[in-house]
Design goal:
Elements: H1 3-15, E1 26-27, E2 30-33, E3 42-54, E4 59-65, E5 70-74, E6 77-81, H2 86-99, E7 105-110, H3 115-120, E8 128-132, H4 136-145, H5 147-150, E9 158-161, H6 165-168, E10 176-182, H7 196-205, E11 206-215, H8 223-236, E12 239-246, E13 254-261, H9 272-276, H10 286-291, H11 297-304
Parallel strand pairs: 7-8, 7-10, 8-9, 10-11
Antiparallel strand pairs: 1-2, 2-3, 3-4, 4-5, 5-6, 11-13, 12-13
Length: 305
């Protein structure tokens, strides 16, 4: 029996829960994301499991939760819920798009749930969006369980490419004004998206004034990784920084992004009138755009060392 199973067995004894078909991730009534993240589990109350699929690349599950709507997991890690995903999708997309004065061609790497492309499509200047998602099962399940994003896949401006992004991007020299890397954590299919080689390829795939933003983990749990990416990106891009957002169902409740730009800082091109044209947003606003780059002192010290 694994360590996690022992913990679950203790719960079972304490609360008289049947332990047949023992699953260390499920305590009846709850899903527990066990600590692949530095010993900090995340617990979400669920009402039922609606899908359990093993695709060619990964294990995908869908749950109906008590208060967060539908929830998707990949390889036992919570990807998104209907309730709190705006904290992630709006911030990964709206920050780079509003930092660029005229984004017209955008690449989204990963993001098969459709939340990021939904945000990108709010920008009138964007003429073309390429979604590079390796796992078609993610898209299929997202269309079924996240109907608020489903229409984005059918938008005339969107092209879906089913490919390994680390290979696809090598063929896209100077193609994109904005690249958004909406990846899983740095293991499994997402591991290649955290390498120096990939960031070098990102730089090459951007137009001469392009901006890239990449999912870069929690300030509390992945400080070493954030420091590594920041110092690496300072050598590759003219401007590199880090910002973060709040998402309750992610480990530690926070997740952040590497901001990588060939020309623009995150603040010069913010236009209140342009933001107003985006329509109703649940999380992002002009003040939060700027505030999200204000980092706690421990991280300031690490990035300056």
């Amino acid at each position: 029996m694994t360590k996690h199973a022992h913990i679950f067995f203790a719960f079972a004894l304490l609360f008289s829960i049947p332990v047949t078909a023992l699953n260390p991730h499920v305590i009846p009534g709850f899903y527990v994301e066990w600590p692949s993240h530095k010993g900090l589990p995340t617990v979400v109350e669920v009402t039922k499991q609606t899908e359990d699929v093993r695709s060619k690349y990964q294990h995908i599950e869908m749950f109906e939760t008590a208060t967060f709507g539908n929830m998707m997991l990949i390889d036992d890690v919570i990807m998104l819920t209907q309730r709190d995903n705006p904290g992630y999708h709006e911030m990964i997309a709206q920050v780079p798009l509003n930092a660029h004065p005229n984004p017209q061609k955008v690449l989204v790497v990963g993001g098969g749930d459709g939340g990021t492309i939904t945000q990108v499509l709010k920008h009138e200047s964007v003429k073309e969006v390429v979604l590079c998602e390796i796992d078609e099962q993610v898209i299929a399940l997202s269309k079924k369980y996240f109907p608020e994003f489903a229409a984005s896949f059918e938008n005339d401006r969107v092209t879906v490419v089913s490919d390994d992004a680390s290979k696809y991007i090598k063929e896209q020299q100077g193609q994109f004004d904005v690249i958004i890397v909406d990846s899983t954590d740095p293991f499994g299919p997402g591991e290649a998206l955290f390498t120096q080689e990939f960031y070098t390829d990102l730089h090459a795939a951007l137009s001469e004034d392009g901006i890239a933003v990449t999912q870069s983990e929690s300030i509390f749990l992945y400080t070493d990784l954030i420091e590594k990416l920041y110092k690496q990106n300072k050598e590759i891009f003219a401007y590199a920084s880090y910002y973060y957002t709040l998402v309750p169902t992610y480990p530690s409740g926070t997740i952040g992004f590497s901001f990588c730009s060939k020309k623009y800082d995150p603040f010069t091109n913010i236009d209140a009138a342009r933001i107003a044209k985006l329509g109703k947003l649940d999380y992002y606003n002009e003040a939060l755009h700027t505030a999200s780059f204000q980092l706690p002192q421990f991280l300031v010290d690490r990035l300056a060392s």
